[in-house]
């Protein structure tokens, strides 16, 4: 049995993870705390998400990923 989304969020936060928002064609798709949560909802591969957030890699057509400032 896998971890619940709530457990994943707690672990992500405790390890310094920062939530992020996703838009597609300008429409807000959701606020996510983990890559796997976003990937499952959006139908994309989770391991690609850090590249979109951290390295400026171009995301799939129409998507925009943005970290949420916690300061």
H/E element string?
Answer: HEEHHE
Strand order of the largest sheet: 2-1-3
The average pLDDT value, as a whole number, equals 83
Distance between the termini: 35 Å
Main beta sheet: 3 strands, antiparallel
Over all CA atoms, what is the radius of gyration? 12 Å
Helix-strand makeup class = alpha+beta
- Assembly status: single chain
Number of strands: 3
* Percentage of residues in strands: 15-25%
- Helical stretch tally: 3
What shape does the CA trace take?
globular
Uncertain regions: pLDDT < 50 for 5+ in a row? none
- Helix percent reads 25-40%
Offer a few descriptive terms:
71 residues, alpha+beta, 3-stranded antiparallel sheet, 3 strands, 34% helix
Can you lay out the helices and strands and say which pair or pack?
Blueprint: H1 5-14, E1 20-24, E2 27-32, H2 35-42, H3 49-54, E3 63-67
Antiparallel strand pairs: 1-2, 1-3
Write up what this structure looks like.
By secondary structure, the chain is an alpha+beta fold. It has three helices and three strands, in the order αββααβ. It has helices at residues 5-14, 35-42, 49-54, and strands spanning 20-24, 27-32, 63-67. It has a three-stranded antiparallel beta sheet with strand order 2-1-3. The chain is globular, with a radius of gyration of 12 Å. It starts with a helix and ends with a strand.
